[in-house]
Structures are given as C-alpha cells and as structure tokens.
Amino acid sequence: SVPSPQPAGAIRPIERASVHRICSGQVVLSLGTAVKELVENSLDAGATNIDIKLKDHGTELIEVSDNGSGVEEENFEGLTLKHYTSKIQDFSDLIHVETFGFRGEALSSLCALSDVTIFTCHKSAKVGTRLVFDHSGKITQKAPFPRQQGTTVSLQQLFYTLPVRHKEFQRNIKKEYAKMVQLLQAYCIVSKGVRINCTNQVGQGKKSCVISTAGSPSLRENIGAVFGQKQLQSLIPFVQLPPSEAVCEEYGLNPANMPQNLYSITGFISRCDHGLGRSTTDRQFFFINQRPCEPAKVVKIVNEVYHLHNKHQYPFVVLNIGVDSECVDINVTPDKRQILLQEEKFLLAILKTSLMEMFGSDVNKLNVNQRLLDIAGNLKKTLPEETEKPQAEMLSDSETENPSGEGKRIMALARLRKSFSLHQATESNFQSSKKVKQQHSSPRQRLLDTTGSTVKIQKTVLTKEAESCPKLDSKVSVPRRHLRKLEDAADSGFCSISESDAGCSTPEAGSCINSESAFNSEEELCSTEEQMEKECLKTSGCGKKSLDCDVQALGTEPKLGQVSDWTDQNKCSQEASSCSPRVKRFKSRNFKSEADDSKAGKYPEVKNTSVDVLVEVKKKTVPLEFSMKVLAERVKKLIQQQQKNTETENYRRFKAKISPGDNKVAEDELRKEISKDMFAKMEIIGQFNLGFIIAKLNSDLFIIDQHATDEKYNFEMLQQHTVLQGQKLIVPQNLNLTAVNETVLIENLEIFRKNGFDFVINENAPVTQRVKLVSLPTSKNWTFGPQDIDELIFMLSDCPGVMCRPSRVRQMFASRACRKSVMIGTALNVQEMRKLITHMGEIEHPWNCPHGRPTMRHIVSLDLIS
Ligand code: ADP
Ligand code: MG
C-alpha cells in the first residue's frame, strides 16, 4: 500500500474535538458525579430550591432545576466551554475559593458525554432562553423560553458518546444509582436553607421520591429529613477538645508548637451504646469547609475510636471540619473529593482526643436534643448544633492519600460478599467476571495470612492435634474482621459505603406521600421472575457448573458439538423452545443426584449439553458428512493431546510446601490446577492417621483433611439451602428505612424470606413507611434483629438478587456445619471417603473450611520420585 505522507512515528497534537472527548470521561465518571456537578452549580448559583428529576434512574434523563441566579446572555457561549468559569480568574483566587466549582469543566464535559439542553433566565432578562448544545459545547439552537429566574440543565442519554462506558453504565445502573444517592445525601445534609428534592420515574410509572429536604437552616434537621427522626435520637453532637498530651505523644506532636484554632470541628456521631451504631459504614459523611469529601485518615480514626467503645458497630457520622483555606488544597482530583490538608496530624489528634472524651464521658448519655451543660468551661465554644449556625466561612480540604479508594472498595466488597454469600453469581454477565475473580485468593486465605490466631490453627492442622474444632472463638470474629477490612481498605467513609440509602424525608414531608417504589411494579415482577430463575440455577449448584465445563470442553470444537447432536439425533427435531425447560429440569435433577455423577451422570449430561447448544448449531444446518470412525479418532487424538499437555506440565504444577507460610500459594495452585470435575476422578489410596484421606490424581498425591472438607461442604449446603424458620412478631415493627433501602428490601424479598425475615408491604403507604417487619428468624441460642436486615440490605445494594446471608447467620451455619461433620479419629471406608472427595467438586471454594482450616494439600508428584 501507499506509505502515508506522515511518518507513523511523528508526534502531533490530537485534534481538539477528540481531546475533549477523550478527557471528558475523566471529569464525569459516573451518574453520581454528573448529578453532583449539576447540584454544585445550582448551589454555587445561590439556589434555595433544587429539583432533581431522573428518568430510569438517570440513564434516560437527568434534569436539575434551580432558582439560582440564572445565566446572563453574554455568558451563554462560555457556559459549556472547557475551562470557562465565572468563579475564579487566576490561580491566586483558588486559595480562597468558596464555590464548589472552579475548574470550568463540568458542563463542557457533560456536553461531550450526553445531549445537553439548558433553560435559563437571569434576573436581568425579560424572558428565559432555551439553549441546545452539541458535543463540542457549541450552541446549536437558541430560542426564547418563558421561565422563572434560575436554570435548568437537562442531560439526555448520559455516556452515549462512549459506547463501552454506556453499556457498563446501564448494566450497573442500580449500583450507580445507589452511589449517586449516597453522594446526594451529603449535599442535602450540608446545604442549610436549601430545599433539595429528587425524584425518579421508571418508564411511564409514577414518580417516586428519592430524597427530599425541607430547606432547614440546621444541620440537625437536614439529617432528620434525610434519615428520619429515629436516627437523630441516637446521635450526640461533636464536642471539640484540644489534643491531650498522650495523643500528642502518639502522633509525635509537640504541644508547644501547635497552631491555635486552626481547626473547628462540628457535627454529630452515634452514641456508642451497643445498638445505637450501625452495622455498616453506610452513613458517614465528612466535609471540609462544608465541601463533601473523603478524608481517608479522618474516616479511619473516627471509626477506630468508635470501635473501642462499641466493638461491633459503626457510627453514623456527620462531621464538618472548618479550617483556614490557606491550609487546604482542594484541587487534587477533578471531582474535588480528595483534599490535601496541612497539619493533618494535628487534626487527627484533636479528633482522637475529643471522641475519646465524648465516648468515655457522660456526654455519651446526653442526646442531641439536650444541651451540653458543663463538661469543662473551655468546651463551650464548640458545643452543639444550635451554636453551630452558619460559621464564618471556613476553608476546605482534607487529604486522602489513596486515590484508588474506589478500586479498593470494590475489592473489599467483593471479598466481603464472597465470605458472606453463596459464591454463586448467577447473572450471565457475571459469570465471566467471576472467573477472573476466582483468580484472586479467597477472603479467608487472606485472613489466614494476616491473623495470627488462625495461622496457629493451621499449623496444627495436618497433625493429629487438629482433631477437635479449635476455632470457635476465632470464628466469631471472622466476619467482623471482614467488615473492618472493608473499612480499612476502603479508606474513606464514602468509599466504603456502597449502600444506597436514599433517605426520603420524614413522613411529614408531604411530597413523599403517594409516591411509590422507585422501581415500578412491572419491573419488580420481572425481577422476581429473574430471581426465581436464578434460584433455579442456584439449586442446580455445581451441577450446572460442571455442565458449563463440559460445554466448553466439547463446544470449543465445533465438530464435537455435532457429535452430540448426532447422539441425540432422534430428538433433534424438537424445537428449541422445548429445550430450556428440559435443561432446567435436568439441572435440578442433576443437583438432587448429588454426588453420583460417576456413571449415570455422564450420559444425560452430554445429552443435555447438546440440547443447550442446539439453538446455535441448528442455525448452520448443513448436510453433514459423517463418519463415526473419523470422529472416534478425533476424540481419541484430543484426549491424548490433553493428556500430553497435563503430563508435560505435571511436575511443575504444585510447588508450594505444606506449611502455614505457604498456604496462599498452595491454595492458588490448587485453584488453578484442580477443576471441579477432577475430584470425581481422584483415586482413593486410603486413610491416614484416622484423620486424612490420601488421594491420587494422575501422578499427584493429595492429602485431604476429612473433617475440614466435610465441614466446608456441609457449610456450603447450609448456606445455599437452609430456609431459616421465622417467628412471627406480635406487633409488626417499623424499620425506619430510607427510601432507597426500602426499595432494595422490596426487590429482594425472597432472599430475606430465605433468611427467615418476613415483611408486610403496603404499597400505598408513604415511602419509608411501606415495609413492616412481621417475622424474624429464630434458632436456638441465636437472636436476630433489624441490624441483620441492614447488613443484608448493604450487601444486596451492591449485588442485587444474589443470595446472601447476614454474617451472624453465617456464623451459625459454620458452627452447625462443624458439629455435623465427620470428626478426626473416625475410621472411614472407601465409599465414605469417595463421598467426601466428590463433595469437594460440588462447591465453589473447597480449599478451606469455614473457619479457615486448609482442606487439601498436594503431597508429592510421583513423577518426581520415579
Ligand atoms: P465551574 O462550576 O467549575 O465554574 P461548570 O462547567 O460547572 O464550571 O459551569 C460553568 C459556568 O456555568 C459556571 O462557572 C457558572 O457561571 C455557569 N453555571 C453553570 N450552572 C449554572 C447554574 N445552575 N446557574 C447559574 N450559572 C451556572
Ligand atoms: Mg461546576
């Protein structure tokens, strides 16, 4: 071909429009940022009334209207130009910036990412104007449009200019939505004297209230509007103290050099009596100079101190840190949520001292409604909310060292989920991502590596001492530790809260009455259906998994697909429509037959597999030349080849030693090398020391802990199939859920029911009052309550529809599983051993028991010996 006139390597500027499109996606990353930017603009414009209208959770339309200043005609052009702002002119202004925005990026980015229309009317204008923009931010239509003073920015089809992101966005919309609500809550709480109202409309359904505040001048009332009066009752105001000597020492601060009055902290936090905190970090809001942000270290210290006084819960937190604006840098990331702070240690020391005192002293017994009288004279100036009136404008900033908080959060949640839930992602699009996830070590492995006590347990595992269950206590702490990790890893309150707690205002807020669920009933219907299908798949458990494997093994080679057709030739004429029910039936049957896949299982499996593939194969119906002989040869060759492959790799496959330090490596190796179907192929050599099974696969010998493996299997079965018995309450109990949490609950009722929670739903009641608890799970020695519901909602808002269990149910199952499993010291016959090993092939993570004990290790490869 003709060589291009430009040498390929020449360095040239990217064409301007393209740069814009490339970079805009970094300014507006999510539904949350889009809404946040628009709300910030309205607040910056001095609005006292902000209405946010979403259609289909924001995928169709995001519209933010305000009664702010409006835009003057001469500024129309500049509105959407990159780095055009009315808020600062040069760098020095940045230091004292008091507006949320100052980078002039939001509107221009939103233009690049969606179809933007702006309606605005400045107070000097006689009539409003409607402006339509193209993706480069140029005005394409401009027409008079009557409206009151203020501005409405309307975004249609956010992200549609970035096709991959757009798909992801739609796929993850519920998560995005939950995060957006979380973000919005922060602005609702901090914006005094501003009425913020957000609604969502799904399809042609009724609008439902997402969040609504009444424009109160007090932080406290804003909190009440978002989270309800009940929440307020559990809070105490933050009382600031100068750092104590002990704390100064801890932080290496010299009390003599400490800046005076640098920080002024106000806000509210949960009292530390048990039961008054929350089971997750879902309601933690931090502000620096009224700017919502994620100051990682602040978040950490607050939670740490709280844990000292209430070990098992997390506080509700609203904290505003006022600081001189010269000591902060807000311009760290485009979303301005990471903030750098001078003298941060000093801040941490103040927080620690003050919180210790608040929780340690009687302050804790006072509630928000009471006035703090006299703890110490010098406290007075920073007393409760009433004194908290709009403070002299403060500055802003905090710091967050870890910009990848989001990634960590996702990892942490994934880990949390893995350990709490059934490990069965059932959405099809989930399946592939799950495979990737499996490459990571399981949560428990990490735990093993990091917790001394469990490591110790492990040391003894492969010895006789491991006989009993030495882990009752370590067990109890496991889930809690996960939660902590979640918090640590997440680095900040905002990060770690994935829960979508859209508070809707208290029932009095008339706007909420009559609004219905955020997701209309039609959608609910299909989501239940979907769910049922998922359940169905779930029941099929590993049966389905092995099926998938087979499909892959065979399916990758098209010829083999045809073979299956052929073996099933008579039935080939059946219509595809009849296939799926059959497959389903098969799936559940397959599950019931549990382990005996050895002989009988194989044939039907292949058959049904072919049915599964049929639809595709049928499309290319071509008369086929067929020879049984050729086919048999091919299959033989394939098998040989596979064998060769495994043989050649054999001696390198397992390298980890059997030692606690090598646990992670060992488990990674096993996970990589042993697929589910391989367990059934293992040959049982015998029992060792009445505690271990020695098994052989090809030339590898494995040792399997009979108790640990049985325990894990029993545990997984309990997790998946136990329907907890509920006990009816005498009086239905109100749950005080926020609007979004209520919706999460209603959408996942089945999962709650399986966990023994039942509710009455009154669709006509005001949002936040629709759900009443009527039944709680019961079990000897275990009591459950609303906190377990909160925890489930937290998990479900991240992975809607995926079966999960509250951590305490999980603990209960772990102890039940332990009790019913084969003990060390019990002699087993070959069948019993075979059963245990086959079971390993039927669960997701057979590599350690619920208490973290390893179940299986590679001993030696016989190839290496001979
Ligand atoms: P920034 O907020 O960083 O200045 P934006 O792109 O968000 O940048 O907005 C650009 C400009 O448009 C703002 O500086 C402001 O003058 C004007 N503007 C945006 N939204 C509104 C609004 N709701 N009311 C009045 N003016 C607005
Ligand atoms: Mg802005």
From TrEMBL:
Main location: nucleus
Region (Disordered): 383-406, 426-447
Species the sequence originates in: Aegithalos caudatus
Keywords: ATP-binding, DNA damage, Endonuclease, Hydrolase, Nuclease, Nucleotide-binding, Nucleus
Gene from which the chain derives: Pms2
GO cellular component terms, semicolon-separated: MutLalpha complex
Name of this protein: Mismatch repair endonuclease PMS2
Example GO molecular function: ATP hydrolysis activity
A Pfam family recorded for this sequence: HATPase_c_3
Domain DNA mismatch repair protein S5: 223-360
